[in-house]
Amino acid sequence: MRNGTGKIVGIIAGALVLGFIIWLSIQNRSRMQLEERLRRESVAGSESTEGSVKQEIIFQSRKVVNEGYTEAQAEGLLDMINKRAAAGDSESLLMLGLGALMDGNYLEAKECLTQVAEKGDMVAQVALGYMYGEGKGVEQDYTKAAKYLTQAAEAGSAEAALGLAFIYLEGTGVEVDKERAIELLKQAAEGGDMEAGNILGNFYYSYPDIVEQDYKEAVKWYKLAAEQGNTIAQVNLGFMYRGWQGVEQDYAEAVKWFMLAADQGNATAQNSLGHMYDKGKGVDQDYVEAMKWYKLAAEQGNSAAQNNLGYMYKVGEGVEQDYAEAVRWFRLAAEKNNVAAQVNLGYMYDEGKGVDQDYVEAMKWYKLAVDQGNATAQNNLGNMYDEGKGVDQDYMEAMKWYKLAAEQGNSEAQNNLGFMYYDGKGVEQDYAEAVRWFRLAAEKKSVAAQINLGYMYDEGIGVELDDAEAIKWYILAADQGNAIAQDNLGYMYRDGEGVERNYTEAVKWYTLAAEQGNADAQLALAKIYEKGGEGFEPDLTQAKYWYGFAAAQGDEYALSCYNELGANSNE
């Protein structure tokens, strides 16, 4: 048996940490919020009558805890509470019942709380609802749990209404009644329960089996909970404004709600805020600020943030490029089963960045991501089999993985699959099928696929020869800065294929490609400058200049032309 001081501490704990007794807390809802809510109700009750029994008990109990009573003083206070409880004083019975419940003395708790609950005390009713719902000191009885929570909810307890809502949703002790559940959730939310508003938002947004989908209603309830300080609702509202349905996209508003939750330490909000700074959405792009928020979230163990932080180190945005640090963060996230991080870690081993190149280890991480259906990992795995990296070269196995990724819409895999059909590797050669996959990828702005599709039209392979169509796809790739496409456009304008011959336009595209180091374009450009063309005067200085660049890349013909121009100019 504990001494008087210990038992008084138990009573004050029961009085001040009442949220623990809420049955809903077992449903994994917000305990801290419920504690605070019932704490306010308890204190409000104690202040309703100046000098009330509860007020006196709480005051004296706090002195036991804060100032340190002697054993005799504590025993005296306990004796006072027991005597008043024996006389039927509700406040004293409630204190003893709650203290016993917190102490695990369920039989005493039931005896005390039942007496108070029958007199209409909603705190006691909620406590009994919890006890019967969980079978704490009593035989589990959902019907009685529903009875006590109903009484408390009707008396205005928001927490009871929230717990009762889930009873009606799950049909424990009552018949399933989803409409009643929604009414109770609204009662709880309007009564100040932050969690209820967020739950209603979730239900209206994505649970049509519970309530008819209504994005505007979702926003309404998320906003109520968010304004009450619920961080999860703030995050959800941020997502709504960032691009979810229900409101007009508003990045600045999304940033506002993410910031509120992030400042309270919510890791999801911190990661999302980092993303907004990373991409310049709703704020000026600021990689250093993005790093700050990613790191705060990552240090809390948020795997998405850990992956994002790894990427920042990989590319050197907001921080000095550091492959080893990138690997460290990718690994932390990958070990939490973050699929993007698994792909990224596999890539680092594949390329030998931040770690020794290790194709077997790369395969390991790609396969873990593949097990989650990730298309990028499927494509990368296909590439490993295609090139025989870490495995025996196997074109059929490569085809298998390319196709799985391609069917998910991965443009790189679609382009790779087109190549397999073009070359007849792992599958019977089929130019028409190659064109089909190149087109799918090209329409997704894959530069490689746009070049390949342009080439198919240029040469009439798998489709009828169509120079104009070839030009179209080359331009799309060239506008994305691709040197091969720019070189191809140069020769088409030079030779008048699909367009009217135009040396000025040819020089424009050749120059763009040549400046990126494309040797073919450098050689072609040198020839135009040497010989001139329709409306284009020769320029031997420029010719020699570009022959020199092509020769430096090992082109022997360019070297001979360079030397010949040098001899003719007496250099």
Give a topology summary.
Blueprint: H1 4-16, H2 23-26, H3 31-46, H4 53-68, H5 71-86, H6 90-103, H7 106-117, H8 122-134, H9 142-154, H10 158-170, H11 178-190, H12 194-206, H13 215-227, H14 231-242, H15 251-263, H16 267-279, H17 287-298, H18 303-315, H19 323-334, H20 339-351, H21 359-370, H22 375-387, H23 395-407, H24 411-423, H25 431-442, H26 447-459, H27 467-478, H28 483-495, H29 503-514, H30 519-531, H31 540-552, H32 556-568
Tell me what you see in this structure:
By secondary structure, the protein is mainly α. It has 32 helices and no strands. Helix 1 packs across helix 4, helix 21 runs antiparallel to helix 22 and helix 22 packs antiparallel against helix 23. The longest helix has 16 residues. The chain is elongated, with a radius of gyration of 36 Å. The N terminus is likely disordered.
Percent strand:
under 5%
Q: Percent helix among the residues?
A: over 70%
Which spans of ≥5 residues are poorly predicted at pLDDT below 50? 1-67
Distance between the termini: 109 Å
Q: Quick check: average pLDDT?
A: 86
Number of strands: 0
State the secondary-structure class. mainly alpha
